[in-house]
TrEMBL record:
This is Uncharacterized protein. Residues 175-253 form the Mab-21-like nucleotidyltransferase domain. Its cofactor is Mg(2+). InterPro entries: Mab-21-like_nuc_Trfase, Mab-21_HhH/H2TH-like, MAB21L/cGLR. Belongs to the mab-21 family. Signal peptide: none annotated. It comes from Pinctada imbricata. SMART domains: Mab-21. Residues 277-340 form the Mab-21-like HhH/H2TH-like domain. Keywords: ATP-binding, Magnesium, Metal-binding, Nucleotide-binding, Nucleotidyltransferase, Transferase. Coiled coil: none annotated.
């Protein structure tokens, strides 16, 4: 079946007439070009903020749909992690030029099957860093890394109760978001198996020459999973799959907005229509759809405009039919690898899938009426000629609001890796300032990063002293640093109070809490992203900075390095979390906790009991304005600690039980230890 003949049934005028409203509908669902760029920028910023610490051994990269700029409800967050001290050479590269201080371990790839390699150990300059992470398998006179055993060792190193296997990844869920962690090896070389992609791209002109150069210079990743089809039994545990996620993200960024929305429409149709049919689930994966989409652009990189939006979508669908009918779909980067191999196990099921896909495609645009997200928007446009103008007018105001939501959502997702010492923190601060000079548009996230680093520097100043004289000097330095950070969305007063308590200045702690309590008495939990609240705040003239600053008052971040002694158990358990190594505490709960502890140290029982009653009234009203339900577990935990401290053992027991029963409790081992201490 020729592609041109497949679409000849549609008149050009009808395609152009339907393409424009369809484009507007898909753009409304997926986002405008500015929104997509903002999503990508925020995830790039998260990667940058996590990886700037020179002393941090592992690099984290956010990939997958969210990293490419899509944001579907069912989308998870794919995170690639690799050790930057380990390098994987290809077959033809000399290892002598890579014997530098940057790499402590060298491996080399050997061809195994299309899209897969064996990873052979070459040399290590620091064996102590090697034994903990890698599992070696001896074969003849060489040592190889076993992919299955490597993945299992990583699962044991992290909290295995909260991570489950998912292909080459470890998957976990935090705050109703699924995270897939792929623990890989990095190779800075473009693999020999994918050289056909380079020559083909030069011939067709897509991707562009600069994009192609960046792709080849960036290299690839190796993920620990073996082939289910090609591998013989001896190599089952040795094969690693070549991941082209770095190249795919480069390509997705180079697409124009029409191409980007076409692939978004394909993903919507795949999830909402194709996956509902059991015939399609067995044969077509989302990654197969992406490869077919890349092949279509490579075959015809021109004419991807709004007027041809529907035509290009249908061409990709017909190309998929051809691949299914021929039982062969080449991988876009390694053409020898068949994406359908191992999926087609029944000729009858294959014919049913092809017939079903042809039936869908014959419906043309009416196929999209089956989609729950597209159908309700498309039906009025097909029935009424004025519906397109109404849709465009609605989008004009909706995009601005969506941009505001996108800004706030990703800014408030901001987390960074803790620095190991004050020198690393200062180097990290220098890197942030240099980036801010070169990229001034990153204003909000740059301020957040500066705030975070200044807090960590202040923490080092408070803790790194050897005499009373140095304590006094370093405290003054730390206080000045926190005051300087006041413009960077920081709960500086609460941080100062925390450090005063840790340095046993209880009277000053009580005085500052008493003064600050008046200002925080009206603080509400402002993490609400509803349209009406954001629209009201933006229309009233509130800036991004003022909105973010109010929402930053919603919690206090505590990590194992900067927490108080009374919460060491909870923070030490959260330290092993790869997603979020810390705990969040409502500010009023934390201040009342410090107030009660200070009164207890000063043996002021009257005020201590008054603080306990206030803590109790705050905690039992979890649906109130001051404590959000996601902070219920830590609030009950702190209340139990306070009650145990005041001798109310029975009430403390009930509070710990409530903390255990809370679905958001990520420190259950610590809670169980406190229960045993009763």
């Amino acid at each position: 079946m020729a592609l041109e003949g497949s679409i000849s049934q549609y008149e050009i005028d009808d395609i152009h007439r339907i393409s424009r409203p369809l484009y507007a509908i898909v753009e409304k669902i997926i986002g405008s070009e500015r929104i997509v760029e903002l999503r990508r920028q925020k995830f790039d910023e998260l990667d940058f903020n996590h990886n700037i610490d020179p002393s941090y051994s592992f690099v984290r990269l956010i990939r997958g749909s969210r990293g490419e700029g899509y944001e579907f409800e069912s989308s998870d967050i794919d995170i690639m992690i690799f050790n930057k001290g380990v390098i994987v050479l290809n077959e033809a590269t000399s290892e002598s030029i890579w014997r530098t201080f940057e790499y402590h371990t060298i491996f080399r790839t050997e061809y195994s099957s299309p899209g897969f390699v064996l990873v052979k150990f070459v040399r290590s300059f620091d064996v102590s860093k090697l034994q903990m992470f890698y599992s070696f398998v001896r074969r003849n006179t060489n040592y190889y890394i076993g992919s299955n055993s490597y993945r299992e060792i990583w699962r044991q190193l992290v909290n295995s109760d909260k991570f489950g296997p998912h292909g080459p990844c470890l998957t976990t869920s935090t705050y109703c978001v699924d995270y897939d962690f792929s623990l890989c090896l990095y190779s800075p070389f473009w693999p020999e198996q994918a050289m056909s992609f380079v020559s083909r791209s030069i011939h067709t002109g897509w991707p562009r020459q600069q994009v192609l150069k960046d792709i080849c210079n960036e290299g690839c990743l190796l993920v620990p999973i073996s082939s289910k089809v090609y591998t013989n039994r001896e190599s089952t545990d040795l094969e690693w799959r070549i991941s082209f996620s770095l190249a795919e993200k480069r390509i997705m960024k180079s697409l124009n907005h029409c191409q980007f929305l076409t692939y978004g429409l394909l993903k919507l149709v795949y999830k909402e229509i194709f996956l509902q049919k059991i015939e399609m689930r067995d044969f077509v994966s989302s990654y197969t759809i992406k490869n077919v989409f890349f092949w279509e652009i490579s075959n015809d990189p021109y004419g991807w405009t709004i007027e041809n939006f529907l035509m290009k979508f249908m061409r990709v669908c017909y190309r998929l039919i051809i691949y299914l009918r021929n039982e062969y779909c080449p991988n876009f980067f390694v053409t020898e690898r068949d994406m359908l191999l191992g999926r087609i196990c029944s000729l009858r099921r294959q014919k049913e899938a092809v017939m079903l896909l042809e039936h869908f495609c014959q419906k043309g645009v009416y196929l999209l009426l089956y989609s729950p997200s597209i159908g309700p928007n498309l039906r009025p446009v097909l029935n009424h000629s004025t519906a397109l103008q109404d849709l465009q007018a609605e989008q004009q105001g909706g995009f601005e609001l969506e941009i505001d939501k996108c800004h706030l959502r990703y800014v408030l997702m901001f987390q960074s890796a803790p620095f190991r010492n004050i020198n690393a923190a200062v180097r990290g601060l220098q890197n942030v300032v240099v980036k801010a000079i070169n990229q001034p548009e990153r204003n909000v996230t740059t301020k957040l990063k500066i705030n975070d680093i200044l807090q960590q520097i202040a923490t080092f100043c408070f803790s790194n002293y050897v005499s009373n004289r140095m304590l006094y000097r370093d405290q003054r330095i730390a206080m000045n640093i926190l005051k300087k950070a006041q413009t960077f969305y920081c709960l500086n007063h609460i941080l100062i109070i925390k450090h005063l308590y840790k340095s046993q200045q209880y009277e000053d702690t009580i005085r500052l809490i008493t003064n600050l309590g008046i200002d925080l008495s009206g603080v509400m939990y402002e993490w609400d992203m509803r349209h009406d609240i954001l629209l009201t705040e933006r229309q009233s003239g509130s800036s991004y900075e003022s909105i973010i600053k109010r929402r930053m008052l919603s919690y206090v971040r505590l990590t194992n390095e900067d927490t108080i002694e009374e919460l060491k158990l909870e923070c030490s358990e959260r330290r092993v979390s790869v997603v979020d190594p810390g705990i969040s505490v409502p500010p009023l709960v934390f201040l009342n906790f410090l107030l009660l502890l200070s009164y207890n140290e000063l043996q002021d029982r009257t005020n201590r009991n008054r603080s306990l009653r206030k803590m109790y009234s705050l905690t039992i009203n979890l649906t109130g304005n001051h404590i959000h339900r996601t902070h219920g577990a830590i609030s009950w935990e702190i209340l139990g600690i306070c009650q145990q401290l005041c001798g109310q053992r029975n009430k403390a027991f009930l509070s710990y039980i409530n903390a255990l029963l809370d679905e958001n409790n990520d420190f259950k081992e610590a809670t169980n230890l406190r229960l045993k201490s009763l």
